[in-house]
Amino acid sequence: MNRTKSAFAATFLAVLAALFLSTQSAVAQEASDIDTSDIIEMVLGNPDAEVTVVEYASFTCPHCASFHAGSFKDLKKDFIDTGKIKFVYREVYFDRQGLWAAIVARCGAGAENRYFGIAEMIYENQRVWARQEDPAAIVDSLRRFGKTAGLTDTQLDQCFSDADTAQKLYARYLQLAEEDSVKSTPTFIINGELYSNMPYAEMADIINAALGE
């Protein structure tokens, strides 16, 4: 990483460190006053489907990585790609690293077209990048995922130095998690009903029931 990249990464890390050093209650109070309406909802499947499945997950959560390595592929094949459901993915930020990963996945114009591809790389390599002790090394690993997806150094520099977006993402997580009573990951909401992590067969039964099948 050259000096320019290091400077951007250092600035971003400092901003996020300050954000997370705030007390949870204080940040939550501020979050309610932050306009997050321009944060894009990441969606797959049929936007007009009668059944909506929302997943709340953290990019650093091992159980979430396991879900995306297995059950999610079945969910995508059986229900998302067939247009039977609308699938919404919402990030949970229990740690700074999870937010940094989301910043990369959401980076650049047209991010919604790259998002799930970058998310897949993030989860597949979670045991490597998320376990690094040096924050700069984590950022460097995440940058590589972004560049593999076609992002440029300039785009990544801009995203890593965008403190306003980082704050909006964190505020949006707090707003939605409070609204939907999310306390752990992965958490699923299937047509308004809250569920914890479960085997895929159980999830498929719930979805099929909601579909009337």
Give a verbal description of the structure.
Residues 1-5 and 21-26 have low confidence and may be disordered. Strands 1-3-2-4-5 form a five-stranded mixed beta sheet, with helices on both faces. 59% of the residues lie in helices and 12% in strands. The N and C termini lie far apart (53 Å). A hairpin with a 2-residue loop joins strand 4 and strand 5. By secondary structure, it is α+β, with helices and mostly antiparallel strands. The protein contains eleven helices and five strands, in the order ααββααβααααααββα. The chain is globular and about 50 Å long. The longest helix is centred in the first third of the chain and has 19 residues, at 3-21.
Extended strand count: 5
**Helix tally?**
11
Q: Would you identify the regions where 5 or more consecutive residues have pLDDT less than 50? A: 1-5, 21-26
Q: What string, H for helix and E for strand, traces the elements in order?
A: HHEEHHEHHHHHHEEH
End-to-end distance: 53 Å
- The outline comes out as globular
Rg for CA atoms? 17 Å
List the SSEs and their pairings.
Elements: H1 3-21, H2 24-31, E1 42-45, E2 51-57, H3 62-69, H4 71-80, E3 85-91, H5 96-105, H6 111-124, H7 126-129, H8 135-148, H9 153-160, H10 163-180, E4 187-190, E5 193-196, H11 200-211
Parallel strand pairs: 2-3
Antiparallel strand pairs: 1-3, 2-4, 4-5
Helix pairs in contact: 1-9, 2-10, 5-6, 5-8
What structural keywords apply?
11 helices, 59% helix, five-stranded mixed sheet, globular, disordered N terminus, alpha+beta, 5 strands, 213 residues
